[in-house]
Amino acid sequence: MADQEKIVIFVTHAGEDPERATLPFVLATASQVMEVEALIVLQSNGVHLASKGYAEKVQAAALPPLKKLLDTFLAEGGRILVCGPCIKERRITEADLIEGAAVTAAGNLVQEIISAKSSLVY
Fold first, then answer.
1. Rounded CA gap, 21 and 10, in Å?
2. 21 domain-assigned
3. Which of 23, 29, 44, 101 could be a cystine partner for 97, CB 3.0 to 4.6 Å?
4. DSSP code per residue over the chain
5. In which domain, by residue range, is 51 found?
6. Is residue 42 part of a domain?
């Protein structure tokens, strides 16, 4: 849909801060329910969330399990972009990433941001 609203949500935390790692996925799945396109961008430590098996270890008190939110987000057509330099710094390879996560670069992120109505950083 050409007129669909879009939000870009940057995630910069992982297991070291489960709440800040999980809340973006709560908002992203809520956006999908509201028919708003949600794009998750993982940067800094947030890139760990796209590593196979990692999300199962992240649980914030009083929030749904991250793995469940992540699976729902992807099943509903959500996209996850992962910072290329960030995974390289953390010695994560593309083969280590979950299905549905794609490595991206700065130029593509700028295009995604300017095409969105809003962006958030966690």
1. 10
2. yes
3. 101
4. -TT--EEEEEE---TTSHHHHHHHHHHHHHHHHTT-EEEEEE-GGGGGGGBTTTGGG---TTS--HHHHHHHHHHTT-EEEEEHHHHHHTT--GGGBPTTEEEE-HHHHHHHHHTSSEEEE-
5. 6-121
6. yes
CA distance 81 to 60: 23
Residue 28, phi then psi, degrees to nearest 5: -65, -45
Tell me which amino acid residue 108 is.
Answer: N
Distance CA 73, CA 11 (A): 14
| pTM of the model as a whole | 0.94
Report pLDDT digits (tens) over 8-27: 999 999 999 999 999 999 99
